[in-house]
Amino acid sequence: MTERDQQTSLPTRVVIIGGGFGGLNAAQALKSANVQVTLIDRRNFHLFQPLLYQVATGGLSPADVSSPLRAILKHQKNTAIVLAEVTGIDRARQEVHLRGGDCVPYDHLIVGTGVRHHYFGHDDWSDIAPGLKTIEDALDIRTRIFLAFETAEREPDPIKQQEWLTFVLVGGGPTGVELAGALAEIANETLRKDFRQIDPRRARIILIEGNDRVLTSYPPKLSAAARRSLHRLGVIVMTESLVTSVDDRGVEFKSKESTQRIDARTVLWAAGVRASSMGRILAEGNDKSLDRSGRVLVDPFLNLPDDQRVYVIGDLAMFTHQTGQPLAGVAAVAIQQGKYAAKTIIARLAGKAVKPFRYSFPGDMATIGRNHAVADIKGFRYSGFLAWISWVFLHLMKLVEFDNRLLVFVQWVWYYITHNRGARLITGEHRLPIRD
Amino acid sequence: MTERDQQTSLPTRVVIIGGGFGGLNAAQALKSANVQVTLIDRRNFHLFQPLLYQVATGGLSPADVSSPLRAILKHQKNTAIVLAEVTGIDRARQEVHLRGGDCVPYDHLIVGTGVRHHYFGHDDWSDIAPGLKTIEDALDIRTRIFLAFETAEREPDPIKQQEWLTFVLVGGGPTGVELAGALAEIANETLRKDFRQIDPRRARIILIEGNDRVLTSYPPKLSAAARRSLHRLGVIVMTESLVTSVDDRGVEFKSKESTQRIDARTVLWAAGVRASSMGRILAEGNDKSLDRSGRVLVDPFLNLPDDQRVYVIGDLAMFTHQTGQPLAGVAAVAIQQGKYAAKTIIARLAGKAVKPFRYSFPGDMATIGRNHAVADIKGFRYSGFLAWISWVFLHLMKLVEFDNRLLVFVQWVWYYITHNRGARLITGEHRLPIRD
After folding, report:
1. ipTM, 2 decimals?
2. What domains sit in chain B, N to C, each tagged with a CATH number?
3. Residue B151 C-alpha, separation from nearest chain A C-alpha, in angstroms
């Protein structure tokens, strides 16, 4: 506690950078506290990342999985939102610097700016194999997927046609698995009767994973169930395979000593992540304070080891104090850490003792197409239809705003009945079949 | 009828360019005919243009007002869809040329490619004052509107702040009037409690119209009612005012001999249209076959005067045979003309006599914010809440696909209760407040 906290009547200033799961939950947990909250984000909305793959596959619209931050927090009088990019943090002067020159002073700072995708030193792959982190990424992927089918329809050469009908997903985590399942349903059901020259069911969907199983953070039993579900949908799963090269005609990968190539015009990246630039900014040149992925090593209270005024939460934080294992980059961790940071600030302001952060594991889930999912909830591990129904209702409930819940529910019911994906619009700059 | 029609067993080939209201209705009217239909469009979806202004103002998502053409026509076995850009039409050889080199031969051709906005020789205004014709336009306008409020929130200079809170709409037709009404509701209701530095109700919304009334194609009584509704919402309507210059800080206009200037950072264009490039292509160098806006003069059967194999429909056609007055560029005209062209082709193939096209006026409507609209239906002219309810249900019914109807209905009910516009996302390239 500083002199300012104790001796002036000015309310304590809490600045939060990032309006994702962590930052938003921190802001909401400070609602009734006698503090002045400033939430800074580069976007004017909170994104419900777990459903972003459904935007990328034309099942939902961007607005269905996004909620304007100002709408969520409009009645929270102690909170201001600033739409801006943070360019620096001066921890000595307790100031956040914004692009354009503005400064936002803080007494306590919570940083939860997440991660970006990462190509392991091959940044040139990013144009060819986009990742899925933002709404813009999702719309880019959506255009690529549906334009590939359109291009195949207009392509007279059968070899090229099959290249356009081949989709490679790099990375067998939840995003890769869920994208693969959705792609299979698009090819087998949604587009089944849409074309006259091609049969969309001829599409090949290939999931490449470096490890020996998909969903490596889940129990092996569920990985096996997920693989069976993918297989039933026609997805080819290649484990123990490392991508060594990506170009605009396909990928090369090493699998058990041999190198193979898949000719494919659509490659999607769900393999690696690296911390956002805020990690480097907080490190202030001390690389030892970051892990290999650029995540910030935090103390048991989620603080920077040398600065109790700064909390790092969510995917950006590297927290290992509970089990010795780093916590996964999932929404549940970010939500709990956001709330914890807020409560810790309140407790410390009141001069109370605080306990270290403890993660309470609520379970893991991934859905694989319609009717199938795998779930690991409080040690109860199950898969199939029951898991899928759990997945559906859990995700509906977790959507922040009621209108999102309603819209997503309507579209899921509709999709369940008809297989139609009404949001499969080809938009943006490149929207015509490619001829080469 | 040519030799091919009569003597070969090959089905007659009908090619339709444009999947708007005209082209789509033509294709659907050919469903049971013994013809082979090819529908060519640059986009993979049909756009319900009358609700596009709601996308531009964050009330609906793009997919809510769009339907994939393949989804609409998937069960129509005699119809193929080609996603391509038409670069030329060879009427002598009866071929449509596509970008990339492909040729599509036709026996009968229906062209309904609509209009683009038009700046009366000031194409440089288009970057500053975007028009509203495509999904991309709508998203661009959406970003500009909500970014303007965000920029005002961060702008310390009160004069610049007011510039960011000033919105100018050029053109008092249905699009200008509906955009103005929606903008007023955004400022007065949706964003009312969202900001901490600005009061969104301070926003000035100014509608500039060259004529002496808004909605000039409607009866004067309804124009007056629309103006009253706009006035009640706080919109400033300036009639008999001609915009003479647009720059990135505002507009200049001439009004009763004097020239005035309005400083505004957001200018939207709803004033002029010009026929799509297909008009010039059909004219084959003969400018007399086009009107001043580039629309194609058609004979009483919607054919080119010298070519009964080519039909021009919708906004692209200039049809004056019924009353001496050109028909308005509205959905109802395009729908009726599309159906007429299809039926005329079928009748002529059967060797039957055909009657000239006659437009049956179903009415005009425009909505002005929540609860107010003006309507002119079969001579019954009314305004206010009753007109608004008619507008709501008519537009819901007219949406092509059932899932669109459901989604739009849900969002309208939700908006009616809460004033929330969940789709007010700032997306695309420029999404941070502007400092200058």
Report:
1. 0.93
2. 3-117+274-349 (3.50.50.60), 118-273+370-418 (3.50.50.100)
3. 9
